[in-house]
Amino acid sequence: MLITRRTMALGALSVLGACVSAGDRSGGGGVYRAPDPAPRIVPDAGWDAWVEGFKGRAAGRGISQGTLDAAFREAGFIPEVIEKDRNQTEFTRTLEDYLNIAASDERVSLGRQRYAQYGSTLAAIESRYGVEGNVVAAVWGLESFFGTRRGNVPVISALSTLAYEGRRAEFFESQLVAALKILQAGDISPGAMTGSWAGAMGHTQFIPTSYLAFAVDFTGDGRRDIWSEDPTDALASTAAYLAKSGWTRGLPWGMEVVVPAGFNAGLLGRGKGRSAAEWQGSGVRSADGRALAGGSIIAGGNGGGAPYFLLTQNFATILRYNNAQNYAIGVGHLSDRLLGRGAVQAAFGPDATGMTQGDRQALQRALSAAGFDTGGTDGVMGAKTRAAISAYQASVGLPVTGEPSLELLRRLR
Ligand SMILES: [Ca+2]
Q: What is the CATH number of domain 1-246?
């Protein structure tokens, strides 16, 4: 996922990094991709000099010479990290697109397998921390596609590169010091401490300060190991994070709701919470017949309007993990899907281009049939679909915009 500024300072950075996941990133969609090759370290005299100065500051913050020597022995400057940091484009996906990616068929399918496979582990974690296993598993699914995209960038190199380069230097230097504290505690070796290009680590993409605050050793081997193939410590650490952030067991994150005709739109919006009984009295019903909960209601549709979602206090807790509304709805919705619940029921309506999900999928099918591969037909107009549009436009002598449109769809039909 693409990083957004506001999420960077927060806990587990799902929107960071090489390895992530649901959302905001163009192209990847919900489909598994092979991991990127490990980035290249290059000699850089400026970085060397910066590290020498940093070592003095780190020593003043309790990092031993031995830890520093071991941590920086193989570390170096990674130009690719700087490129990723500079090339972030900030854009907002629609909730519809976000959920198409966050709860793609592939992610739901793999998630149900993993949820079953780790059922007893998740149940043990739930009984200790009071966070439902399907919610923890949904975070895992969004952060690393259930462990398949944990990131292979050496963390000390990545964080020192970002701290040296200057932009947000203070933030990354504090993360670097935290990473060194983790090494000093013996939880992981420098060589095995890998993560995203921005230093988000392991199955649920903890940044070092979040690790220090929340990571736990659930396996009992004395190490808080969020990097291993075995996700147990990472899942327990995620539950610990949510528990300490105010999670209430038994309270849904939220749910899709249906509002009555003529519903007062002034009642919509986060922060305008009402009790379940008040919503019930206003004619609001859950989309699947469940009992309502207290909370606020938002319109999730492309032009406002349906689908509507009721969001509880547990939704606010997910935001403490990653402060992005689409992310938190994505976690909640995926957690429901892992239990066997269905997709969002109401249609999201036409998007800003006037196209519905069905139109966008028809466009992808038509492009693919014409020999312009869109990499799937999920209805999400990602980088691959836009490249296919551009290639088609060039092939027929149209101006090359890469932009989807109803006119393009008509032309292709
Ligand atoms: Ca452990």
A: 1.10.8.350
